[in-house]
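We were asked to recover a plausible sequence for a given structure. The inputs and outputs are reproduced exactly as logged, with field labels preserved.

PROBLEM: sequence recovery
POSITIONS: 536
GIVEN STRUCTURE:
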């Protein structure tokens, strides 16, 4: 969609009665959507580094057979907390940070609908993160039940499990408030002339994602509350001896858990749907079909949860239903991949860093999608369930999928945020280093899984050594590339003060970029739209 703006669009400056507060008050009491978006992004990157250190400790242990640097109990605590920190602390808050920054700019709104609630929803996250990290200091250590917190393991863990349950409740409350804010902002605060079917794709993907959050976060809250009651109040929701059912926990968790996968990937689809048209210098191919595909993914995501449970002994009729429903959900996803490729077809392509990450996203996400189709086949899934094949699959979808899209979005929009251009050569080094080391790290895991190496084991037979060593080398390379991004790409942009240190960004740094966000100066003013722009 192209958006033109009437000449009388006002951009407020940073002076006058509404000048931004300064010092610590600007951040602690932030109500401006840009500042809160920045806080979310800083928090999520910090949690990415915390979760990444845990991952590298896991890979260091697996470099050789036998126990090298830790006890198996601590190894299982690391695998559990790595997953929780990455999902709830890194990926989800990062996309909310992008939503805070970009949605008001894209739809011509002055800010988010509920500015103080926006501040509160962010400041719930740091205490929750402290609870997660503090669980390592509790008697018995952090939870070691896997990130899914399956009963009955989770009902037998020490007090660290209670901290995890409280942290998930707090993060869930933050997500629900953020989702309400996004829904109200998109539905009520669009610029005059911007109908729903003229909205940018990022706004569409976030509208659907926010509805998913409102639907499934309360389900997760119910699951962990039942866990808490089983642990301390004598109930037997998941205790077979008291008439409960441990498999019930899996049903409830995965009814949250599978839509959650799309909560972490739909905003990524939105980002890619902006980057590819901009660097193909063409409008997005099949905008309407993209919108319908997003809605179809959201609806179907509620009908596939038990494909995580093929190994629990469910009836064949149920296995068939969930198998076919899972295959069906690949159709709207395939529509999106086809539309991105069709957008690039015969376009005037250029491959700056945002486009490199977007094309890399399509490549690795499609690979993850194919392994997902394999796991959708119940007989095959029973064979590789609980092996490293599953680890390979979801890291291709989540690390390569969500994270590569986030980097594409950062390189694409950061000139608008900071008023500075990143150094292109350093961006390309970050991309190629990340893409190559990621595939070195995670591709061998497919072979490990097919050969039968189980997940969450601190030791393994000697025949798995070579592939594990390759995977560990790749994982350390991937981790180092993200530190390189922080020190050599992001910080120079954010900290540069003079014209010499970093190139100043024009209002529209990318020739093919379209949308309201490119009609405001770079960096975007503290108060963006004094009067709503009129979209023609």
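RECOVERED SEQUENCE:
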């Amino acid at each position: 969609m192209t958006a033109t703006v009437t000449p009388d669009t006002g951009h407020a400056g940073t002076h006058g009665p509404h000048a931004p507060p300064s010092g610590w008050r600007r951040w602690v009491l932030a109500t401006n959507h840009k500042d809160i978006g920045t806080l979310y992004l800083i928090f999520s990157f910090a949690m990415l580094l915390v979760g990444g250190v845990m991952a590298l400790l896991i890979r260091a242990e697996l470099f050789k057979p036998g126990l090298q640097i830790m006890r198996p109990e601590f190894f299982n605590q690391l695998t559990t907390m790595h997953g929780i920190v990455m999902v709830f602390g890194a990926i989800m808050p990062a996309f909310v940070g992008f939503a805070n920054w970009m949605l008001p700019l894209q739809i011509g709104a002055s800010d988010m609908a509920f500015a103080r609630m926006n501040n509160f929803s962010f400041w719930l996250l740091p205490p929750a993160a402290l609870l997660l990290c503090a669980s390592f200091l509790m008697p018995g250590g952090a939870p070691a039940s896997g990130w899914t917190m399956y009963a009955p393991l989770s009902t037998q863990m020490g007090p660290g499990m209670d901290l995890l349950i409280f942290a998930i409740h707090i993060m869930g409350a933050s997500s629900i408030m953020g989702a309400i804010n996004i829904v109200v902002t998109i539905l009520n605060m669009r610029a005059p002339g911007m109908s729903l079917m003229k909205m940018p794709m990022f706004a569409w993907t976030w509208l659907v994602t926010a509805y998913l959050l409102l639907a499934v976060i309360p389900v997760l809250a119910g699951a962990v509350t039942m866990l808490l009651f089983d642990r301390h109040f004598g109930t037997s929701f998941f205790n077979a001896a008291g008439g409960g059912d441990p498999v019930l926990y899996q049903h409830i968790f995965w009814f949250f858990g599978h839509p959650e996968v799309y909560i972490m990937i739909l905003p990524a689809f939105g980002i890619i749907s902006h980057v590819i048209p901009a660097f193909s210098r063409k409008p997005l191919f099949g905008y309407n079909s993209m919108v319908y595909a997003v809605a179809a993914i959201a609806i179907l995501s509620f009908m596939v949860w038990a494909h995580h449970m093929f190994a629990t002994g469910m009836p064949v009729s149920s296995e068939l239903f969930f198998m076919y429903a899972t295959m069906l959900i690949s159709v709207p996803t395939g529509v999106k991949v086809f539309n991105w490729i069709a957008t690039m077809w015969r376009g005037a392509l250029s491959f700056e860093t945002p486009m490199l990450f977007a094309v890399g996203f399509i490549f690795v996400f499609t690979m993850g999608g194919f392994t997902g189709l394999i796991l959708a086949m119940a007989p095959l899934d029973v064979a590789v369930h609980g092996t490293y094949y599953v680890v390979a699959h979801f890291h291709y979808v989540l690390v390569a999928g969500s994270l590569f899209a986030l980097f594409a979005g950062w390189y694409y929009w950061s000139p608008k945020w900071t008023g500075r251009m990143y150094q292109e050569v350093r961006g390309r080094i970050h991309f190629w280093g990340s893409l190559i080391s990621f595939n070195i790290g995670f591709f061998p895991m497919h072979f490990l899984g097919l050969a039968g190496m189980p997940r969450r084991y601190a030791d393994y037979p000697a025949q798995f050594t070579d592939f594990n060593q390759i995977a560990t080398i790749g994982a350390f390379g991937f981790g180092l590339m993200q530190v390189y991004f922080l020190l050599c790409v992001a910080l120079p942009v954010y900290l540069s003060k003079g014209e010499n240190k970093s190139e100043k960004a024009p209002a529209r740094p990318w020739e093919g970029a379209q949308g309201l966000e490119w009609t405001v100066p770079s960096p975007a003013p503290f108060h963006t739209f004094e009067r709503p722009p009129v979209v023609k």
